[in-house]
Design brief:
The protein is α+β, with helices and mostly antiparallel strands. Helices cover 39% and strands 20% of the residues. It has one domain (3-137): Alpha-Beta Plaits (2-Layer Sandwich), CATH 3.30.70. It contains seven helices and four strands, in the order E-H-H-E-H-H-E-H-H-E-H. Strands 2-3-1-4 form a four-stranded antiparallel β-sheet. The relative contact order is 0.26. It binds ribavirin triphosphate and magnesium ion. Ribavirin triphosphate binds next to strand 4. Residues 3-140 form the Nucleoside diphosphate kinase-like domain.
Amino acid sequence: MAVERTLSIIKPDAVAKNVVGEIVSRFEKAGLKVVASKMAHLSDKEAGGFYAEHAERPFYGDLVAFMTSGPVVVQVLEGEDAIARNRELMGATNPKEADAGTIRADFAESIDANAVHGSDSPASAAREVSYFFAATEVHSR
Ligand code: RTP
Ligand code: MG
């Protein structure tokens, strides 16, 4: 296993529910370190560009509308096997299918409002980290 970085977004539904700290605590307890962090209210252009891989999917419009509906917390997590470890903590995309004890099972309402985003591959992680953060804003430790 290698030390990796992954991009996490705590989505508008979870920020509105005031569970940012509970979610970050799960990352920390699993050995993932927060090495960059900011709050943002994404524009249509920022959210649309971030999810560009889904531009042709039927849910794209709803996804962009949801991701711009309120502030989010954007973070870089670092640790051993961080990309897969974060996806395990998150649980399945649809919270109804997410394993008990995962973030989506515990905090998400629906497949649209599903609490968190996490990069799904090393290539995505590299693109997504640099989409939101300059190298000087990531503080490896
Ligand atoms: P994310 O990118 O947000 O971490 O989620 P994910 O990898 O688990 O799922 P992905 O396939 O990348 O889809 C991105 C987001 O689009 C919404 N979605 N809706 N209605 C649908 O069938 C559907 N499929 C995906 C979800 O909100 C998902 O998080
Ligand atoms: Mg995805």
